[in-house]
């Protein structure tokens, strides 16, 4: 029997300068905040966050995020939040910080507010976290009973971040509809364990249309640290549309292959989440035998925003066949989503597709 589930944040707020309103929005959730951010992010926005919370009479405690969304880091921060008696958990920063904040809030059964400082992933809106080992190897997805209570995105702050992160968010977002179509076709389940909803598919489609229509002009604006209407549209696509799309329509090959890349060591781990997802998206397209021109269109777009489309750009040009198969094996693990693309894929088939992307990309003019 079909079961349709649609999940979303309680409230989403976006605009240039809205970080100054964080205290006002947080006041709806509680009067004591536990703030999680890494040193870099805290140096950029910490003073402004402290001021807006003070103006709303919200008590606050800041704790440094150590860089990995691991079980030990989640436990450490949850214990610190308990000692402080904080009511609301607030994550500020990038994907791993935000995933960790969601996990800490789940441990405490507390409201959580998510404040991305770059439009670099679709993590902010979802009711799940990607959990890694302390050395950065993918371990599992952790699911929650609810989405964040507040997602607040200051587009001016996001536009001040490196343009590489903005492009990475576009690449992450472009996987959304590609994967959603595979889930729908295979009668797979979404990330909220339902059949893909009409709304989820429509949002995923709108995400792709927005990114392919305005992604390049928005990228050029952010390179100059400007906020334009195109930037606002793409930030919404990177964050809200991609988040709602992947959660309610599902994941398939692109993100599974991204996770597979964690099976090996090397310079690939200096790449961003979105850069690895971009290559994973192309690999999925090869595996599902999409038309050459459709794959070429994605390759040309990725090149325009400096996303990797070759093994050399992925730092994989010297990897052994055995390591390529290891990537395919981890992508194909039981707890991941490659089965939504094709349950019959083997590690060797995935490895061949990874190599085929490189050859085809080099032929595209």
TrEMBL record:
Statement: the UniProt record of this protein carries the keyword Zinc: yes
Binding site for NAD(+): 38, 95-99, 117-120, 126, 128, 132
GO MF annotation terms: glycerol dehydrogenase (NAD+) activity; metal ion binding
Superkingdom classification of source: Bacteria
Enzyme class name: oxidoreductase
Binding site for glycerol: 122, 172, 255, 273
A Pfam match: Fe-ADH
Cofactor: binding comment: Binds 1 zinc ion per subunit.
Annotated GO CC locations: cytosol
Catalytic activity: glycerol + NAD(+) = dihydroxyacetone + NADH + H(+)
Cofactor: Zn(2+)
Every Alcohol dehydrogenase iron-type/glycerol dehydrogenase GldA domain range: 9-155
Stored InterPro entries: ADH_Fe/GldA (IPR001670), Glycerol_DH (IPR016205)
Pathway(s) of this molecule: Polyol metabolism; glycerol fermentation; glycerone phosphate from glycerol (oxidative route): step 1/2
EC numbers, comma separated: 1.1.1.6
UniProt entry tagged with the keyword Metal-binding: yes
PANTHER family the UniProt entry points to: GLYCEROL DEHYDROGENASE (PTHR43616), GLYCEROL DEHYDROGENASE 1 (PTHR43616:SF5)
UniProt-recorded name of the protein: Glycerol dehydrogenase
Species, as recorded: Pantoea alhagi
